[in-house]
Automatic annotation (TrEMBL):
Protein name: Dephospho-CoA kinase
Lineage, highest ranks first: Bacteria, Bacillati, Bacillota, Clostridia, Peptostreptococcales
Reaction it catalyzes: 3'-dephospho-CoA + ATP = ADP + CoA + H(+)
Keywords tagged on the record: ATP-binding, Coenzyme A biosynthesis, Cytoplasm, Kinase, Nucleotide-binding, Transferase
Native source organism of the sequence: Alkaliphilus pronyensis
Stretches that traverse the bilayer: none
Record-level GO BP terms: coenzyme A biosynthetic process
Entry function: Catalyzes the phosphorylation of the 3'-hydroxyl group of dephosphocoenzyme A to form coenzyme A.
Length: 199
């Protein structure tokens, strides 16, 4: 029997790092962020809806989504973000659902990992068998986010605070992956978890 795991956590907590380790161990990864980008590619129904609702100014000369401009618009306007989500989220959820069905059909006895920052917010938890939350101390999260994205302390704090509180996310967790230590510590932890799910 295949098992589907939803992997989530705060920004820069280490979801991608964890999913890469799991992939090396043999898991099949579904990257929700990648799907979110694919559904708004040039010529897609979602992009057409975005153009109809938000206007031509959010489409580039080449017919692509102007992500930066739309990002600035929706992140300073809650109603606009809700509108955008109402266009894209159902399509993203549908794609993820279909991918899980397809992967399960073609891979018996596999571990499928859905890497999704918004797993809980988008109610994707109903599509997975287990929820794993990657957690890290606030200080470590701040440090990694500032380093990775070249942000100031203020900008990094604002990004962390704009997300669902990690304690709230932990309440949904079947497993909490503590990524406050170094990379070798994380690898050892994931290898151990992997052994137990494969047994
Ligand atoms: P996002 O929410 O933006 O998608 P994420 O949760 O996928 O981020 P990663 O990109 O995996 O987080 O990790 C954030 C940064 O922290 C990266 O630069 C990564 O290399 C680093 N990192 C992750 N885990 C560790 C660790 N245990 N020790 C040191 N650095 C780490």
């Amino acid at each position: 029997m295949s098992k589907t795991i939803g992997l989530t956590g705060g920004i820069a907590s280490g979801k991608t790092t964890v999913s890469k380790i799991l992939e090396l161990l043999g898991a099949i990864i579904i990257d929700a962020d990648l799907i979110a980008r694919e559904v708004v590619k040039k010529g897609t129904p979602a992009l057409k809806s975005i153009e109809a609702v938000f206007g031509k100014e959010f489409i580039t000369k080449d017919g692509e989504l102007n992500r930066k401009k739309l990002g600035v618009h929706v992140f300073s306007n809650k109603k606009a973000l809700e509108k955008l989500n109402s266009i894209t989220h159902p399509i993203i959820i549908n794609h993820i659902q279909n991918q899980i069905i397809e992967l399960k059909k073609n891979n018996s006895n596999s571990i499928i990992v859905l890497d999704a920052a918004l797993l809980i917010e988008m109610k994707l938890t109903s599509l997975v068998d287990e929820v794993w939350v990657v957690a890290v101390t606030f200080e470590e999260q701040l440090k990694r986010l500032m380093e990775r994205d070249g942000l100031s302390k203020r900008q990094a704090i604002d990004r962390i605070n704009s997300q669902m509180n990690i304690e709230e996310k932990k309440a949904y967790a079947d497993k909490i992956i503590d990524n406050s230590g170094g990379l070798s510590q994380l690898e050892a932890l994931i290898i151990n978890i992997w052994k137990n799910i494969k047994d």
